[in-house]
Every structure is written in structure tokens, then in C-alpha cells.
Write a structure and sequence with these properties.
The protein is an alpha/beta fold. Helices cover 39% and strands 15% of the residues. The protein folds into four domains: 4-213, P-loop containing nucleotide triphosphate hydrolases (Rossmann fold); 221-354 and 449-492, 3-Layer(aba) Sandwich (Rossmann fold), CATH 3.40.50; 361-436, Winged helix-like DNA-binding domain superfamily/Winged helix DNA-binding domain (Arc Repressor Mutant, subunit A); 504-691, 3-Layer(aba) Sandwich (Rossmann fold), CATH 3.40.50.2020. The strands form five sheets. The protein has a seven-stranded parallel β-sheet with strand order 3-4-2-5-6-1-7, with helices on both faces. The two termini are 50 Å apart.
């Protein structure tokens, strides 16, 4: 058993084992932080140190020493699966037995829980969402709560950045801290604790925090901003620069779709890149390792690959769009140049990023109208409602309902509570502090977005100082960039290639196979849609308003009142490449009472170009609200129910190409295809000019 008071030699042993460097020594503040934790059973320590400083060594070494002294395990709250994988590997190198319980390893939960119960682990890694899981609370936390030696909240700025809205379960940490023994050691770590973050941390973790704050300057990083409004210019710039940039890196995007699109474009130009998003699934660990091994030039990633991912020789981080805050940006760009003398952090700025960031800010909290609608729906049902039950009573999207329920349930006292699968009202009323907090944070995030726009406009050489000042750090250590700026021009021929690439992108539309919950009473249908009456897989030419065809579709519908010949040619090309089988023998269109001539005229021109006959066989029975005003699938289905029918014109028997301008819920295509198939048509192939929305 190691005596805690005399553990300096053991600390150094563990550091050298963890780093693999035989003569490694502690960086300024590391040894002091470890001693603070192991020597003071009531320690509440916040470490604010730049990315790459080695915050994980502090809690792993402290955990190992505490365990060797006979103390219980540590619990580490970590935000990302990629970060957890890195942490487990880092722990293994210094003999720390780390395990995790997360959404990716459900098959191993029983085995992991048994190991925990036998006191055979040193540290347990969890996401904040685990704290809301009943099984975890009763079968894991209840067993070890009085034995936990150290609670670690890694990347604790997430409490402030994500905990109010994006991942509200971060707020449960406050309750955990208040219920655990008062002599529990607590460590919070981050690279980005500005004054806003500090205020939130003091609220959640307590006011008596000892702060270890280091120098935030990253002298190895050369930061640069380049304004390129169009996506085609930025795609061309990336393709050109990746040919000359040394080493490997990360390219960050704001949305899943952009990550996939950028990766696909760079692959067409011969670059070994892969997309890494929250949808990457089981390949995430494989791709992380591929980047570590330099088997890929870059990963094109969303925030799913961010905090804690450690590749010391990462040579560049490029942002395809401007992030919404300095806090997030410093975390991401700080992946680069940890063990290099020089590395690039390049921020490309475009025209779409403001819309995306505004969306993040404005959608962070439910509106007063959304909260009132959900509470009213619950008030009308004494036995409570499931989420599908709520959706059938309110015109709010599934995601917004889910967020509203999560945020309300985490209030103290909470106006709602979950019993089984149903949500019910409690006796508590929603306090006005909920709205005050929402307004305060919205204003803060708007200010941080303004701050990033200012950052983008800075001349070369001013960026690091700006970041450090924005993070309330010390400016005295700022040094000039070690590398020259990269060119901000791009080959015009490559831009044209990028435009062509963006314009040939198409989106597959999967057919619906079931009617909505409760069916469609006007049509007298419910349950599964018979296969012979389903639509076939369809295609959309673009995303509404995107950098390819999306802007032209938007202009045609709302400005010109006429879709251009270019869109006809694009749909012909897409249909030829699509090559549906059996091939369409005729063309029809979804009718509209608001724009009666728009789609029939376009569909007729498309039919002529394809050499097919056009028949307008569908009609609208009455004027309903636009589908885009219906926020969830149940409401969208109800809005269509009974509004379409077959007119008196005979229906051809062969396969049909069914044309509409926009697709959202797919219910209009589903009902139209069902009507056509019910009345003698062959297979129905839906084709839309644009699909609404983007994944973030």
C-alpha cells in the first residue's frame, strides 16, 4: 500500500508509464494538482489548462494512487465516446483499470456491472445521460456511491455550453454532487473556462473551487481566417491545399450533411479522407485509429470528434464553416500541434454558417408557446401521455417535444415527471427562472457568435491573442505565428468542378411502409401499407436552399413562379443516372391550389424531355395549410388525410414518375402513390426538386 503523503516517486513512475517517455517530467501545475487531490479528501479542484497540457494524467495518476492506498474507485463523466476510448487507452498504459457504460456497449453492461460490484475497477467512465438511467442509478451508483474516492467532470465547460439545452442531463451533475458524501474529492477539467463558464461551474459544483489556471497560449499553432462565401470555393480550396499540407488533420463542419459532402468531394479529387459524424456508428473507433496511424489524410468531422481526441502530431485543423463560439472553436483547433513545433489552424468562413448558427441559438430552448402546448396536452390527460400521444395533440416536432420534456423534467421542482412510458403533470409550476435563464443564455450565445464574426475579420497574426483574451486568459505569453499564411486564392477551374459536384448530388427518399399512429380516418386506412400500394424509393434533386440546385429551386418557387430549364435538364440527368426499374412509362404531378400551374407545367416539360406522356390525374379536394407548417409526422399525415383524390381522367397502367417541388414528411408522396396504385397505376417513382431541412 502506498502512503499518500509520500507518493512523489510513484507519481513520476506513473507519468513515465503513461507517456512512454523514460525521462518525462511533470508540466507546471500537474504535480501540484495531483497532490491537492490525493492529500485533501475534501478537495474541489478546477483545472483550466490549454489543450494538450495533460489534464488526463492528473486524474488517472490521482486515481491510481488513491486505489493503491485502499480507496474506492473514481467516476469520470465524459462527453464523447471518442474521448472515452482515448481515455481508456491512456488509463491502460499506466495500469489503471478503466471501464465504461455507454450506449455503444449495451451487450457488455452485465459484465461491467459485475466487475464494478466486485471492486475490480479503478475508474468508471460514463456520459451525463447515464445519470438519468434508472438501472444505472439503482444497480451501479447506489452500490458504489459511498465508496467513490474521486468524481471527475472532464471537459466541464460542457455544463455551461451544452447542459442548458443540447444535453440537459449535464444538470444532473449538480444533484449528484449534492447527494454524494461531503468528503468526496471532486475534479473538473477544461481548456476553456471563461467567466461565463466559471459562473455556471460555481453554481453546479459549489462556490469553494480551487482553480488551477495555466497559460492558454499555443505557440505551435498558426491561426488564420479566410473568407470564402460560396461552398464551391471552399471545396476547391480544400482540394488544392490538401495536396501541399504536410501531415494529417481534421476538417470540421457544422452539419452531418456537410461532413459527408465535403468528404465525398475530396475523395473524388483523390484524397484519402473519411467522414466522421454521430451517424458513423461502429466505424468510429476504426476511423480514429486510421487518423492516429496516418492512414488517412484527414477526417471530415462534426463535433462528434472533438474534445479529448489526442493525436500529438496532428498537423492541421481546418474549419469548413465558422463555429458559434470561441469556447467551441478553441477546443477544436486545439487538437492540432500538440507535439509539433508548428501546425495550422485555418478557419474558412462562408455565407451559410450564420443561418446554421442562428438555428442552433434560436432552437436551443423551447418557446413559451411550445411549453404551453405540451403542458396543456398533459393537463387534459389525467393518466398522462406518451410522446406519440403528445405529438397527436400538438403541432410540434418530435425533437422539440423531446427537448421540452427533458428540460422541464430537470427543473427543481419539476412541473412534469415520467411514470413508465407516460409523462404527467406534477403539483409544481414552472418557475419564471426557467425563462430568465433561457433569455440570458440566448443573449450570451448571440454575443459569442458576434465575437466569432469579429475573430473571422482579424488580420493574420492577431488570432491567438484574440482567443486568449476572449477566454479571459493572460496575453503576456502570446508569440507570433511560426508558419506563413496559406494562400487565400483558389483555382477557378477547380471551383467550376466543385459547382458541378454540388449540382449532381441527389438524395434518396425511402418509402413509408406504415400509416401514421391512429391511421388516416378520411381514407379509412391504418396499420401497414400493403406492399403493392407503397411508393417506390424516390429521389430529391437537392436540399432546399443548398449550394447546389437548392437556391435555384427556391428562386423558381418564390421569386420567378417558374422553374428554369436548368432544373429540367438536371432532373433528366438525375433520372437517367437513377435508372429506376421498371422504367416509368408516364409522368404525373402532385397538385396545388396555391400554385396550380407550377408543378404541372414543370412535370410536362420534364415528361417531354424524357419522351414520356404527361397525365394530370390527381386533384386537391380542399386547401390545407402548407406541409412545412406541420411540425411532426402525425400532424403532417392528418393534414394530408382526405385532401387528395383521383380525378375523372383514366389512369395509365404502367409505372409512373410522380413529381413534386418539395418533400418533407413524405406523406404527400405516400398518399399520392397509394391513390395511384389503388386505381390501377403501375409502380410509382417519386421525384422531388428539393428536400427540406438539414441534419446538424
Amino acid at each position: 500500500m502506498v502512503v499518500i503523503e509520500d507518493c512523489g516517486h510513484r507519481m513520476l513512475e506513473l507519468l513515465r508509464a503513461g507517456t512512454g517517455i523514460a525521462d518525462a517530467i511533470f508540466r507546471d501545475g500537474q504535480e501540484e494538482a495531483i497532490r491537492h487531490l490525493v492529500e485533501d479528501p475534501r478537495s474541489r479542484l478546477l483545472i483550466v489548462q490549454k489543450t494538450g497540457w495533460g489534464k488526463s494524467f492528473v486524474y488517472f495518476i490521482a486515481t491510481k494512487i488513491l486505489r493503491e492506498a485502499g480507496h474506492g474507485p473514481a467516476v469520470l463523466v465524459s462527453p464523447l465516446l471518442a474521448l472515452m476510448r482515448n481515455q481508456i487507452e491512456a488509463a491502460r498504459r499506466m495500469g489503471v483499470h478503466a471501464v465504461t457504460i455507454n450506449s455503444d456497449n449495451q451487450a457488455q453492461w452485465d459484465e461491467v456491472e459485475a466487475t464494478i460490484n466486485r471492486n475490480e475497477i479503478d475508474i468508471l467512465l460514463i456520459s451525463p445521460e447515464r445519470l438519468a438511467n434508472e438501472r444505472f442509478r439503482t444497480q451501479v451508483m447506489a452500490v458504489i456511491a459511498d465508496k467513490i474516492a474521486l468524481l471527475v467532470i472532464d471537459e466541464c465547460h460542457c455544463i455551461s455550453d451544452w447542459g442548458h439545452d443540447f444535453r440537459p442531463h449535464y444538470r444532473l451533475i449538480e444533484r449528484v454532487v449534492k447527494t454524494l458524501p461531503p468528503n468526496l474529492r471532486l475534479l473538473a477539467t477544461t481548456a476553456t473556462a471563461n467567466n461565463r463558464v466559471m459562473e455556471d461551474l460555481c453554481t453546479v459544483l459549489g462556490p469553494h473551487l480551487t482553480v488551477s489556471r495555466g497559460d492558454l497560449n499555443r505557440p505551435s499553432l498558426t491561426l488564420q481566417t479566410i473568407c470564402m462565401p460560396s461552398q464551391a470555393e471552399r471545396l476547391a480550396w480544400l482540394a488544392e491545399r490538401l495536396m501541399t499540407l504536410q501531415g494529417s488533420g481534421i476538417i470540421y463542419t457544422l452539419t452531418v450533411r456537410d461532413a459527408n459532402q465535403v468528404a465525398a468531394w475530396l475523395q473524388t479529387k483523390g484524397h484519402t479522407v473519411e467522414a466522421y459524424t454521430g451517424e458513423t456508428g461502429e466505424r468510429r473507433a476504426e476511423l480514429e485509429q486510421a487518423l492516429l496511424d496516418n492512414r488517412v489524410k484527414a477526417l471530415v468531422a462534426t463535433t462528434a470528434l472533438g474534445m479529448g481526441y489526442d493525436k500529438p502530431d496532428l498537423a492541421f485543423v481546418i474549419h469548413y464553416q465558422m463555429p458559434g463560439s470561441v469556447v467551441g472553436y478553441y477546443q477544436q483547433v486545439g487538437r492540432a500541434g500538440r507535439a509539433l513545433d508548428a501546425a495550422y489552424g485555418i478557419l474558412l468562413s462562408g455565407q451559410e454558417e450564420t443561418e446554421i448558427n442562428d438555428y442552433f441559438i434560436q432552437s436551443a430552448f423551447p418557446t413559451r408557446e411550445e411549453v404551453a402546448a405540451v403542458l396543456h396536452a398533459l393537463e387534459a390527460e389525467a393518466d398522462g401521455l406518451s410522446i406519440p400521444g403528445i405529438l397527436s395533440r400538438v403541432n410540434i416536432s418530435y425533437g422539440r417535444v423531446e427537448k421540452t420534456l427533458a428540460l422541464l423534467s430537470l427543473e427543481a421542482p419539476a412541473p412534469i415527471a415520467k411514470e413508465g412510458a407516460k409523462w404527467q403533470l406534477t403539483a409544481a409550476k414552472l418557475a419564471n427562472s426557467f425563462w430568465e435563464r433561457a433569455e440570458r443564455l440566448t443573449a450570451l450565445r448571440q454575443e459569442e457568435h458576434r465575437q466569432m464574426r469579429e475573430y473571422v475579420s482579424l488580420p493574420f497574426g492577431r488570432h491567438m491573442g484574440f482567443l486568449i483574451q476572449a477566454l479571459d486568459g493572460n496575453l503576456e505569453s502570446v508569440t507570433p505565428p511560426p508558419l506563413p499564411p496559406l494562400p487565400d486564392t483558389v483555382d477557378s477551374a477547380l471551383v467550376q468542378e466543385a459547382i458541378s459536384f454540388l449540382q449532381r448530388t441527389s438524395i434518396t427518399l425511402e418509402p413509408r411502409i406504415k400509416w401514421p399512429s391512429g391511421g388516416m380516418p378520411c381514407y379509412g386506412v391504418k396499420g401497414n401499407i400493403p406492399v403493392e400500394f407503397q411508393a417506390q424509393p424516390g429521389k430529391a434533386l437537392c436540399i432546399w436552399g443548398d449550394a447546389g440546385w437548392g437556391g435555384l429551386v427556391k428562386r423558381g418557387k418564390y421569386h420567378d413562379g417558374h422553374f428554369s430549364d436548368e432544373l429540367v435538364k438536371a432532373c433528366v440527368k438525375m433520372t437517367v443516372e437513377w435508372n429506376p426499374h421498371p422504367a416509368p412509362a408516364w409522368v404525373t404531378a402532385v397538385p396545388s391550389l396555391r400554385h396550380p400551374g407550377l408543378m404541372p407545367q414543370f412535370a410536362q416539360r420534364l415528361a417531354d424531355a424524357l419522351g414520356l406522356p404527361f397525365f394530370m390525374v390527381l386533384t386537391r379536394t380542399d386547401d390545407r395549410p402548407e406541409q412545412k407548417r406541420m411540425a411532426n409526422s402525425i400532424q403532417q399525415a392528418r393534414n394530408i388525410d382526405g385532401s387528395l383524390c383521383i380525378n375523372t381522367q383514366p389512369i395509365p397502367s404502367g409505372p409512373a414518375l410522380l413529381i413534386d417541388d418539395m418533400v418533407d414528411s413524405r406523406w404527400t408522396f405516400t398518399v399520392s402513390s397509394w391513390l395511384l396504385r389503388m386505381n390501377g397505376s403501375g409502380e410509382v417513382w417519386p421525384l422531388a426538386l428539393a428536400k427540406t431541412g438539414y441534419k446538424v
